[in-house]
Specification:
There is one protein chain. Helix content is 29%, strand content 20%. The strands form three sheets. An eight-stranded mixed beta sheet has the order 1-2-12-9-14-7-6-3. A four-stranded antiparallel beta sheet has the order 8-13-10-11, with no helix packed on it. Helix 1 packs across helix 4. It is globular and about 55 Å long.
Length: 347
């Protein structure tokens, strides 16, 4: 295994003896503040179960092209489904990966009940007919990852000396869930090698399960470092909503994925969880010491942050998927927009 500088957090220790819990909470707070990325162990997802999920992803990506295209994301105004290599953009450049996206399984809202553009994110997933077992397996896995994320949010609140349940109002009922099965093909001669370009994630937290191949890289004060697979561990990173909630005390960290070498395929499964789409990000009341170090969320004119969760999520979807944006939202050059407040009515 490659060397990595990312800290390791043991989720099981948070339920252990008081001293172990206190030490792990301190370590969690330090990891979130200084790096924004860490490995998570003690999460109760066995290596066998993780291998089964990666094997399911491999079966999907091995389907004939026509089977995958039948559930292309461009068919879904809710941004669910398959994207072929190069269909998703990061910073207006195509990512060299194919992927399958799901979110919470819900009925789409009737047109008469849609008053904000982000409400069109609510809806059903697409499922490949050739893999009928996929729906039950992925939704169950998404539910397990949601539970882990909620436990981590409670731990973050305690590590930051916040009142218990400080995030509860924003996630009660139906927190925003988003999961991707991802396949990175090997590099080709003359290719960019951009598996995924440098970016930040829009939610509260992201959990990533990797196969045996490296590729994920994290920006630190010392430059880019690798986050190679650690057997059994998930990689966790801070999203933009925690940066907003903490007024910049916690930072969403830039990260990217390099394409694997020629002839090598890489699989991963990423889970993103945000607050409910109709919620506003809570602004935490920090201690005087923390407040003195909080310099506000990062200001990037090309990537504005919204306290309204639905706007923040939709902004990212429109920028990343211009084909869906053009077909279902009437938006062109979506990656250049800095707001979603002026979107046209649903089409």
């Amino acid at each position: 295994m490659e060397h990595t500088s990312l800290p390791i957090i043991d989720l099981a220790a948070l339920s252990g003896a008081p001293d172990s819990r206190r030490q792990m909470l301190a370590r969690l707070g330090q990891a979130a503040r200084e790096v924004g990325f860490f490995y998570l162990i003690g999460h109760d997802l066995s290596p066998e179960q993780q291998r089964e999920m990666l094997a399911l992803a491999a079966r999907f990506f091995a389907l004939p092209e026509q089977e995958k295209r039948a559930v292309q994301m461009v068919h879904s105004p809710h941004f669910r489904g398959y994207n072929q290599v190069g269909a998703e953009l990061t910073r207006a450049r195509p990512d060299l990966r194919e992927q399958f996206d799901i979110m919470g399984e819900e009925a789409a809202l009737p047109a008469a009940e849609i008053h904000q553009p982000w409400q069109r994110l609510i809806g059903p997933n697409q499922w490949p007919a050739a893999l009928p077992e996929m729906q039950e397996a992925l939704l169950a896995w998404q539910a397990r990852l949601t539970g882990i994320t909620l436990t981590l949010l409670d731990a973050f609140a305690e590590a930051l000396a916040q009142p218990p349940g400080v995030f509860d109002e924003s996630i009660r009922g139906t927190p925003y869930q988003h999961m991707k099965l991802i396949h990175y093909p090997g590099q080709v001669a003359g290719g960019s090698g951009q598996g995924v370009g440098a970016h930040k994630d829009p939610g509260y937290l992201t959990l990533v399960m990797q196969d045996d191949h490296s590729g994920l890289e994290v920006e630190t004060a010392s430059g880019w470092i690798s986050a190679p697979p650690l057997p059994g561990a998930l990689v966790v990173n801070i999203g933009e909503l925690l940066e907003l909630a903490s007024n910049g005390y916690l930072k969403a960290t830039l990260h990217r994925v390099k394409s694997p070498p020629p002839g090598v395929s890489r699989l991963s499964l990423a889970f993103f969880m945000a607050a409910r789409l109709d919620a506003r990000v809570p602004l935490l009341i920090l201690s005087p010491e923390q407040a003195a170090e909080a310099q506000g969320p990062e200001s990037d004119p090309a990537n504005p942050l919204f306290y309204e969760v639905g706007e923040n999520v939709l902004k990212g979807r429109l920028r990343s998927h211009p084909d869906v944006a053009a077909r279902h939202y009437g938006v062109t050059q979506a990656a250049r927009r800095d707001t979603v407040s002026a979107l046209p009515e649903p089409v």
